Amino acid sequence: MGAVLFCSNLDDPEEWRGPLTKLMPDLDLRVYPNFGKAEDIDFAMVWRPPEEGMDQFKNLKAIQSLGAGVNQLDMSKLPPRVAIARLVDEVLSKAMAEFCVLTALRYHRNIDVHERNSRTKKWEYIIPRPAEQRTVGVMGIGVLGGAAARLLKSVGFKVCGWSRGPKKLDGVECFHGPDGLYRMASKCSIMIGLLPLTPETQGIIGKKLFDAMPQGSYIVNVGRGGHLNEADLLPAIQSGKIAGATLDVFNAEPLPDNHPFWNRPQILITPHVASTGGADTAAQLVVENIRLARAGKTLVNQVDRSKGY
Ligand code: NAP
Ligand code: GLV
Description:
This protein is α/β, with parallel strands linked by helices. The chain has 8 helices and 12 strands.
């Protein structure tokens, strides 16, 4: 039987070992870079692949992403025989929905303004409005965007959602396709980016989107850094079109010290912490995928390489 490679600079392999071996007692888990013979590896759990790539693993059948996103795996460098699965996990979905509600409420209740005012001893009364008077848009209403949309709805916001193909979500006004985004944007003064990064979604959070939104809108990007057209954001903030942005993901992580986004009062930077999966809850899925990969079957949450997500 083959061995499973664990390769991540963010996840602790020992957190996973217990839950995995409980479900698969004969699991041979090897942690990068001490994986022994490369030809033993037939399955890999990966956040980012090693710099030298995955070519040395000639018997690799499948990769289980340790994230919900897969763009960091650079699929173009992986042979077609290697199936890829995304991580879908209740802990990850719940944490993401919480983060989206937290950031939407922060803007909706003007907490960002009160935070700034409290630094300058400014007493500014801003009338609090009910959440029902605010429309929040969610770009990407898959597993995570869907969970976020439901939780946003439950606190009272009007919620719109955008997907690639047509979709129905209870209580959410749904839009799809390229034109659908800009029709949705005209209604939303808070926009949350929760898309996978593909050639179609690269740079999609940019001037055209900002222009379609009401004056003084807010942007929350929790998808990937590549979704944001960085050069468009500062002029949009300067003009007041965008009143604030919460950015959790960046093209370069950590964000370099000299990046112009640091120290901007209207930009909140969080270090890619919107959500993460839980080994206890996700181990079941991983073990199922190890078994499916070894049986030559389709994985659970297998990525459609032609779509890129
Ligand atoms: P998912 O279930 O695959 O959902 C993706 C959604 O995006 C779907 O609704 C899909 O539309 C839509 N979409 C994809 N391409 C599109 C396009 N060209 N136009 C319009 N809609 C498009 O993915 P997920 O599990 O929700 O994860 C989403 C992303 O969140 C991940 O890829 C990752 O980048 C990011 N993420 C970030 C963090 C963090 O901590 N910041 C954590 C986890 C994940 P269809 O429904 O029509 O397919
Ligand atoms: C984190 O960004 C993930 O893709 O799960």
